[in-house]
Amino acid sequence: MSSSKSAASAAASLRLPGTQPLASTSHSCPVVSFEILPSSGVLSRALPRVWLHVTPWSTQRLIGARLGLPSTLPSKMTPSQTDAPHAPSTPAAAPSAITRLARTLRGLPPAERWWGPGCAGMAGWLKRAAQSLPPEDLTPRFHALLARVRQGLPVLPQEAQRHQYVLVRGMLGDELPGYLLDNVQRLERRGLSVREAAVDTEGLLANNVAVLREVLRDAEYFGRSVVMVGHSKGGVECTATLALYPELRHVVRAVVTLQAPYGGSSIAHDLATTPQLRRLIDFAFPLLFHGVSRSVEELSYPQRQAFIQQHPYPADIPTVSLATSRLSRTSTLYPLQRYLHERYGYQSDGMVTAVDAEVPGARVVRLHDMDHAEAALRGLPGLVRYHPGDLTEVMVALALEAR
Fold first, then answer.
1. What residue spans of 116-180 are helical by DSSP H?
2. Which stretches does UniProt call biased (Polar residues) (predicted)?
3. Is the dihedral of CA 120, 126, 129, 132 positive or negative?
4. 208 class by beta-carbon count within 10 Å (0-12 exposed, 13-18 middle, 19+ buried)
5. pLDDT category, 36, cuts 50, 70, 90?
6. Where do the structural domains in the chain lie, given as residue ranges?
7. How would you class 181 by CB atoms within 10 Å of its CB: exposed for 0-12, middle for 13-18, buried for 19 or more?
8. What fold is seen in the domain 125-400?
């Protein structure tokens, strides 16, 4: 009885001027009484939000109809939902540290040019300075022998069995799984004696030359002749050993350089001469590879120019050089190929320009569809055109052919 009186009192309190009081309700649920002033439009618009929290649905309809307010519930809302109190609103989360950092970086002034002078015009310096005749191009002969190898036909001469084959790895060769593996296995399957020189692929030139010197001395002691096969930086170390120790030339039957930066490497030059990149390799080489960052600087153009002028490569050693280039999105080295092409206009394999891979006095194989990794690492089928084993077998055969 008391609840009915409370409902009637609440309804009467909501009476507007010039209207009749609301009839009493028989609901037992209490309602909240509001007193609406005639000129309080703001309060009347806020009224529905108040009563939705504290008044049962049936009473809301009765009061809403009296006040001319909508009598339908919001979409996707049931009376049971309106009876439950709303959760308190949470304050907006503070921006994260990454967001604050991004805002700070966007507010910084534009950075000054940092990439250094570069090596524009330096590639091919050795070829321009050479006074000798142009090298003999063995590319057609290479493709002829490569077709025979792919058919399973022999291409190596009979004398190949008499020599020992010393393979020399290039930069980061110790860190790459499968590096020169197919090259070694192919020569071993042909019944040849193969030895991998224990050079430090991130070490200095002088230290690795000392290792190769001992390898040649061992062969000399046992009366063996040697065919040296070096990939990338390993090819530079092969030629440097013979230039520094002429007394060991008689031990070497032939030399094969695969994509060797004999004249220098554009990538190594930019890494060594750009201050920010130089600090990066000074930090990364000792920490990640236990190497020496100066081994990269030794492949820059000024360093190679100084070494070659002081220690020229002997012209009386049969030598075959592989010079390659490629510019393809399917290559793993495409970003570096595009960098050298767009900045300098150089044709490269991603590490070495083709003109810098030609050793003076050597016969040359020029390929325009091979990147720097294909000569030493097996690639994915359909993305590469050459197998490291096929390539090595053909290059050795060319080196042993009579001139």
1. 125-129, 139-150
2. 73-83
3. negative
4. buried
5. very low
6. 2-83, 125-400
7. middle
8. Rossmann fold (3.40.50)
Helices 181-189 & 388-400, crossing angle to 10 degrees? Answer: 60
Cβ contact 249:242 at 8 Å: yes
Q: At what angle do helices 275-284 and 266-273 cross, to 10 degrees?
A: 100
**Token duo for residue 42:** 């703001």
pTM: predicted TM-score of the whole model, two decimal places: 0.72
Give the integer Cα–Cα distance in Å for 80 and 270.
Answer: 72
Q: Measured between alpha carbons, how far is residue 318 from residues 54, 205, 313, 356 in Å?
A: 100, 22, 11, 19
The string of pLDDT tens digits covering residues 300-346 is 999 999 999 999 999 889 999 999 999 999 999 999 999 999 999 99
- From residue 174, alpha-carbon distances to 128, 179, 246 in Å are 34, 8, 29
Please return the burial class of 174, using the count of CB atoms within 10 Å of its CB with bins 0-12, 13-18 and 19+. middle
